[in-house]
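Hi there,

I know you've been waiting on this one. I reran it after we fixed the sequence typo, so this is the corrected version. Both the input and the resulting structure follow.
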Amino acid sequence: MVLDDGSLPHGIVYPSRHDGGTTCFATWLRRVDDGYDASTELTIADQGQSIEFDNPDFGSVIDAFGIIAF
């Protein structure tokens, strides 16, 4: 995909279909697509935040959608 100005998009931002107040992000890993190692990507991720299994909201989501969490 090429944008109108000729540049390549880095990703997309879109609202969650499950919660109108939550924003989701998707980023393209162009270097990986070109065969390079993931460590060469400009985008990095940290460890994030742990979700405990005794979290009732988390439990409701995995039950509602049949997700296997371990």
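Quick highlight: The mean pLDDT is 80.

Best,
R. S.
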